[in-house]
Amino acid sequence: MDKALYIGMSGAKQNMLSQRAHANNLANVNTTGFKKDFAQARSMSVFGAGHPTRAYAMSERPGTDLSAGALQETGRKLDVAMKGEGWLAIQNAQGEEVFTRTGSLQIDANGMLRLSGGEMVMGNGGPVALPPFENVQVGEDGSISVVPVGGPPDQLVEVDRLKLVNPPARDIEKGPDGYMRRKPDAAIGGMEPVDANLRVASGFLESSNVNAVEEMISNLQLSRQFEMQIKIMQTAKQNSESAARLLQNL
């Protein structure tokens, strides 16, 4: 009976963890550039003082779906989306270089180019800083050009270039902050090199690659499985009570 109870208990717990992963995907269905997480379950033996005669289901996140989302036209000059492969390099609050497909860029009061969350956008020589300007354009190669204050409208001056990188998919993983970074065992001991072959589309944003219908169906299936695990636990309890009553009558 304790075996059945353990199976039901561990199964219910792991179902809840899987539901959390799918719920997080569903919550980010409208998040620009979001990449959904995979979730799977596998059997694990329970090791302890004796032989591993128990097994339980373990939910895990084996990786992230790196497929591209659809491009949505915004018409905003500082919105950029990657064309095909590649990532936009940014600097998080800890000073770490991380990668994203979120391309909604903002300019702060000091002329620094940032994401909406405050992360600094990296250029070829560090964080991108723009001088006072009357107009700004982002080229297909990531070049950032401005019309200086007081200059003629057709006088575009290139001031920097977005740092576009393309590390191997097998070498990167999603961190707790939602940004991609190199795995510890795939670190290169320095800044990620620029890939000059990458291209961006100005005036577009990449949508999330989450399929809302698939995530809702997965959550429904996991809910059914959770209910089944609870019934197993209830049945184990009833069997234990029945056995106790039989022993009392002996």
Short description:
With 250 residues, the chain is an alpha+beta fold.
Notes on the structure:
- The protein is built from 2 helices and 18 strands.
- It is α+β, with helices and mostly antiparallel strands.
- Strand 9 (120-123) and strand 10 form a beta hairpin.
- Helix 1 (2-27) packs antiparallel against helix 2 (212-248).
- The longest helix is centred in the last third of the chain and has 37 residues, at 212-248.
- The model has no long low-confidence stretch (mean pLDDT 88).
Lay out the secondary structure.
Layout: H1 2-27, E1 40-46, E2 54-60, E3 71-73, E4 80-83, E5 87-91, E6 97-100, E7 105-107, E8 113-115, E9 120-123, E10 126-127, E11 133-138, E12 143-148, E13 157-161, E14 164-165, E15 172-174, E16 180-182, E17 199-202, E18 204-206, H2 212-248
Antiparallel strand pairs: 1-2, 3-18, 4-17, 5-6, 5-9, 5-14, 7-8, 9-10, 11-12, 12-13, 15-16
Helix pairs in contact: 1-2
